[in-house]
What does this fold into?
Amino acid sequence: MNNERRNFVRFLTQDTAFAVFRPHFSKLGKINNISRGGLAFEYISFQGQKEDSSAIDIFLSDRSFHLTKIPCKIIYDIKINEGYQRFGDPVETRLCGLQFGELTQEKAAQLNFFLNNHTTERASSTRLTINSSSL
It folds into this structure.
């Protein structure tokens, strides 16, 4: 029996949808799924690289959509794949889940536009089990 506790339906995005942390733009990744309440995205990171960010941008690689400075908080940021060594620094693939903060009317309208026009289908309701040692 599946006990989905999310408040909003999640949707898969087009392959060209990305998120990036502000203000340093050091973590950029492909959006896995998105809802009115938040998103999950996958990115490559140097091991140990941490960034406390309170805002992200959502954009399409063809520059047809760009939503800036969305307030958010990190719910989880976990390693999903051991990486490789690049110039002595270990690299890993990570999955980050974000919860959106309070959106202005304009940003909420832009997010709704994105959900209506740049998502492909409803995401599966399978929940990710998070081990606290991965955070």
